[in-house]
């Protein structure tokens, strides 16, 4: 997400941990750097918009900054002095300090000037670089430098509707050093966004509303470090992401506090946003604890979307055209993996309700392929068809939350509840499984009677039908016997089960319908089994 300039200096996970197989303290250092990056990345979210016709003053813009920075606590912002000279307000020695859990984060921003332009807009100027320092209770200190080149920030609008316009040639976040006890860890660890543009808006009414939408032409990622206290061990990684587009909307109370506020989402706060990306490429080489591994990963377009409030949680993502090649000392040959797409979605209600609310869940793993050398490990005689494998499962339905899931006061009751939701309907929206020449597809829907918790205890009594079509299963079982993975006499039981629950509809084609009636009977292809 983003919160104006405030999030530009707050931690936001951007890079996955690298070098988990290194020394334990190294892992902590890298995770600390990852924590620091949260939102330092997001100064890019103060992006360009058309100048409004209304007027805004330098003082009003600075007041808006202070109001937004207040979400991190009433004492988080410190200022040396505020000097107004002519049409320019200069705020000196600006710093932001936050303490979360055992870590203190301090961003020393330095001087910021707000110059009125004579056309109703204000130009904001700040230092080209500033440090962010993290310190934990054990005394470990990590310093990250934020560097921006060609930064242009113009603000327009009115005091309660402020529009920010920002562009920059580059925005770089880089690890400067980590000092822990008697050793200093350093190396090249950085992420650089190139050619940033977009818009950011701050609106104030009954709630504070923040929105941004922006684009980054490309992002360069670099990791090149020697593992401390480990001779000859290293981690190197390089990556490039093309066409990053971001957007977000945030609503919060005027006096909302983000840090150390357990009731954050019960006070009306809501967040939604996400990003889309174009093609990305990565290469890596890791030597840790005597094991060396190198390779490359590439992906096509991707997206991520999130929504969270006291009422609902929604999270979805999808990436296409994934290809990976890994060479490792632990394997005698390169490992090659490909996917045409992988994705997920989750959408659930969170607020206690008198009526059932919609929910959904889905996963997608499409056209998984591996190299022939991997297939040969368990199928050296090429018995199994080596078609791409796919798993797609989708569910949707209606359920009534019995608790306010985001309310800390109800957390214990939720944890102790056998069923925090009252289930009303479930529909199988997608079932597509294909592996080694066999396929499974299906659809179905069930409703649930919550007045009867006995017949199918602990679930409410369902009513509905599930239809499944299976192709190539007998052939797959025969192939497993041919390969010697399963003895022939052990295939009798599964074939008998197929005969009981499925009927033949063609050459190695089976169909099964499972039905649950209103009086609790369970039928398989019309035959009662319960």
What does this protein look like?
The protein has helices at 4-7, 24-36, 58-69, 372-378, 411-416, 473-482, 492-501, and strands at 77-78, 81-85, 88-100, 103-116, 122-126, 129-136, 141-149, 152-158, 161-180, 183-185, 187-204, 207-226, 234-253, 270-277, 280-288, 291-299, 302-309, 312-328, 335-349, 357-370, 389-401, 421-435, 438-449, 461-471, 503-506, 509-516, 522-524, 527-528. The model is unreliable at 1-53 (pLDDT under 50). 26% of the residues are buried. The chain is globular. By secondary structure, it is mostly beta strands. The chain has a 28-stranded antiparallel β-sheet that branches. Strand 9 and strand 10 form a beta hairpin. The longest helix has 13 residues, at 24-36.
Please summarize what this structure is.
The protein is mainly β and 530 residues long.
| Rg computed from alpha carbons, rounded to a whole number of angstroms | 28 Å
Taking the sheet with the most strands, its summary is: 28 strands, antiparallel
List the uncertain runs: 1-53
How many strand elements? 28
What is the distance, rounded to the nearest whole angstrom, between the alpha carbons of the first and last residues? 51 Å
Question: Per DSSP, what share of the residues sits in E-state strands of 2 or more residues?
Answer: over 45%
**SS-based structural class?**
mainly beta
Q: What is the 3D form?
A: globular
Report the mean per-residue pLDDT as an integer.
Answer: 86
Helix content: 10-25%
Number of helices: 7
Topology:
Blueprint: H1 4-7, H2 24-36, H3 58-69, E1 77-78, E2 81-85, E3 88-100, E4 103-116, E5 122-126, E6 129-136, E7 141-149, E8 152-158, E9 161-180, E10 183-185, E11 187-204, E12 207-226, E13 234-253, E14 270-277, E15 280-288, E16 291-299, E17 302-309, E18 312-328, E19 335-349, E20 357-370, H4 372-378, E21 389-401, H5 411-416, E22 421-435, E23 438-449, E24 461-471, H6 473-482, H7 492-501, E25 503-506, E26 509-516, E27 522-524, E28 527-528
Antiparallel strand pairs: 1-3, 2-3, 3-4, 4-5, 4-6, 5-8, 6-7, 7-9, 8-9, 9-10, 9-11, 11-12, 12-13, 13-14, 13-15, 14-17, 15-16, 16-18, 17-18, 18-19, 19-20, 20-21, 21-22, 22-23, 23-24, 24-26, 25-26, 26-27, 27-28
